[in-house]
Fold each of these.
Amino acid sequence: MNNSKRINVALLCGGKSGEHEVSLLSARNVYDSLDKTKYNVVIVGIDKMGRWFPISENSLIEKSGGMNEIASDKGVTSVSIIPSSADLQFSDMGNGHTPFDVVIPILHGPYGEDGSVQGLLKLANIPYVGAGVLGSAVGMDKDVMKRLLRDAGLPIGKFVTLYKHRKSLSYVRITKKLGSPIFIKPANLGSSVGVSRVDTKKEYEKAVAEAFKYDTKIIIEEYIDGREIECAILGNEEPVASIPGEIATNKSHHAFYSYEAKYLDEQGADLIIPASLTKKQTRAVQDLAVKVFTTLCCEGMARVDFFFRENSTFVVNEINTIPGFTSMSMYPKLWEASGISNEKLIDTLIQLAIKRFKVEQKLVTK
């Protein structure tokens, strides 16, 4: 670990997923929240080809402001990861090696939130913020996630899983099992990319084809009529839940809380914090959020999303192990409303990463 006064932090952003541009928005807010008197911060961008390279603060601001993808400038050297017995080093190919104390992966979706980067960092022997390999993988895969939650006895909606290499089920069979309307999603993606609401057979075929563009496995979920409630989770062995918030989608603009409603339309939805719940309901959803987090073997941070039905029951929708950190995102807003500023939140996440790393270093591996 670095012994100097300031902690060396590598902030990973961009990535190969369909949420590349959202990652840049989140990374910009995380960068702004990092206390530069405590941290030496290097921004590492990953383009849509999967290439790593350093980017400047100005470049991050420019790209995130216009929702553009990042690309390396002419003459900019690439970045590689060098595993070592003590720490992770980024090689700039020409100027030696720079060791880092902790990595903050702000990579939404596949190749960042699914355990792939977490596995790479684990092999490189470096602390990193957020869930580990297992928690990241099962949190990303909505099919596996729902099966684990179901087996743990936690309330989820009905769903069907389809595979690209297998014969698809007909619209009639699906709606007989799930009712109508239904929602069709890629199993391994977030932020509503590739998600469709389906009310007719014609829409069904189109939505299945769209979801299969992003994954070889898709899930089809029943429509749940309920308010959308979200809780933020923070911690490792003893995680805690924030006060819950509510997403009130502007139905005159969007049929559901879509990608556009989340990130592109400032009037797409209202974030109501705290959610209008009784004390008993608040405690119930907080307890349930923590159970989801621990059931899925998560650590560090997550946002757990629910539907709240009129009969006062909560249904788990999904978990996000690297939730959005944009100016419109619920995760940082929930903690701010719970008394933890963005700066303190990032500090805590870094300390949780370092603490977990120290525990793991004491394990016998040979």
Note: DSSP finds eleven helices and 17 strands in the chain.
Amino acid sequence: MTDIDTRALLPGLDPSGGFDWRDGERRVVFGRACHDRAAEILSDRDEPYAVLCSPRAASALPPGVGEGATEVVQLGPGPVAELSAPLVESELPDLLVAFGGGRLIDSAKAVVAARGRGAAAALPTTLSGAEMTAVHRMPEGRSGSMVRPRLVLWDPAALDSAPEATLRASAMNAVAHAAEALWVRIANPVSSLAAAEGVRFIASGLDAVAGGGFDHDELGLGALLCGYALDGTSLSFHHVVSQSLVHTVGSPHAETNAVVLPLVVESMADRAPAAIHALGDALGVAGAAEAVAGRLRELAGGTPGLRALAERPDRAADVVEAVLGRSRQLELIADPPGEEELRALVDRAIDGPAGGR
């Protein structure tokens, strides 16, 4: 029997062709030049909107988007809970359009969630996956139901100026979304299929560098699918460790995910062998968890420890305490890790795969 590449038979799986996906109340437009159409698409909604972006991105807004906004709000560095809090009671309109990475998109979602009205729109420029999830922090002192963007305009051309190291680290964050979706207790077939296909696209997109550069179309669609998979399940072991490191030792978000993911994959070998096999198959490797972890390190461009990148690298014990304090999310995997295993993993994350106590 002749092998048939089913992906080649399905136009919807060709990221270079783009697509317009209606998912309930959500619309996802994917494809090159869709940011150039953003002003037109937003005007079709016939409602006022404000733009949230970084100071650096303010001069790079898609044509007409800034001009059509009632206000362009430039958010500086800082956590989502702090950045979003002053905007809740502001006079900004109900539709908030985020142009940028996960921090900007999460801030728009947080404001909408705290207000209990309105909608967020996302024009991603990174592989964060935030545009596809109802996962975000709330503004300080506020509560509410989590929200996901109602409109997503995903233009792979937004990645064209990103440095290689940045894209590799961001891509590993996306793969981590898929990995969690595969191994949590509440995994489901839809999320698992999206996760596996998302990882395939990301691995293929990163491998394309040998031909002269990354395939940004594949990376973008892969991140979108991985985010969709996480939204249908939950974050767990990997994200709890990564987030605790970021907040406690002050290491950068994407790079922390890239370092932690191979370590967590090795820890999950006996807890979720089917999930590790599926992840390895999507990455194009067979064998034990060590082979999968090795492939992840290869795609990440090598994963040295976080010590040189962290502001407070000697707080491993505090990281472990923070992780154990999130037992509800740890319990979404089989046989949640205890203090000793977590300390060994955190030490290796900080000091490198060969490090540890």
Note: The mean pLDDT is 93.
Amino acid sequence: MKTVWDRWFGKTKRSRYLIREPHLSGYSIDIGLYSDVGCVRASNQDRIGCVRYAAPGNAVTILADGMGGHNGGETASELAVTVLERRFSRQLDRHSCQQALTDSFAEANATILGVAKQQAELAGMGTTLVVLVIVEGCAVYANVGDSRLYLIRNGSCIQLSEDHTMVAQMIRDGLLQPKEAETHPDKNIITRAVGTKPSVNVALSKSPLFLEQSDCFVLCSDGLYDLVSEPELIEITQKNSAQIACDILVDLAKQRGGYDNISVIIVKIGKMAEGHLRVPITRF
């Protein structure tokens, strides 16, 4: 199975991209966020979050899709996003963010379990969780569950996150073809979640992904990607600002039924405005 790096760059170029220093220094970040209850559900169990830093090229975006009944899903996703926002409230550098991601997922997992033990009506609650960290010209990311992170670069769209679902595992085992998974009745049964077991197995980016001008990252719940195709993601994000693209994508999913909660975060990498001074990184 090819890795993300092999699919993007090929094996001969892989080591160069992994070891070189970031070549993108003066860049801006345009972030859009939108979470909607959709057209069918009575409540929104998705939660989104964002942390911006004094250094204009650094940010953290977070998306969670809760499960476990009306109150349980809302509580689990809210707790996860709150923990991540607090954990990343201090400025990071690219050498520390992978450990910070591992620690923050573990804390979110323990927090959700602890609350569930104290309140019987919340027993069994959990959440998906996908996080993107942009820091010092690099992207680092992690996920649990089936909420996704895509990178749109040079007109192509690739899924960076790893789906933790029954059908995704069947594809990896060679028991199912990707096209068959689109209509499989068990496609939304997840095999990993935050807050359901004493420990959580996190899919973490192995190395920093160095940014390029015009990169676009899309974090979304299944309520969006089940109804909007990757070619549509490319077209809409390339033609619009981050927030307008979010609005259009959510509206499109709702026009097609909106049978689940719909959440999307878009992070677009652009050129820093001429004359804009880089703000020194605040250290603690």
Note: Residues 97-118 form the longest helix (22 residues).
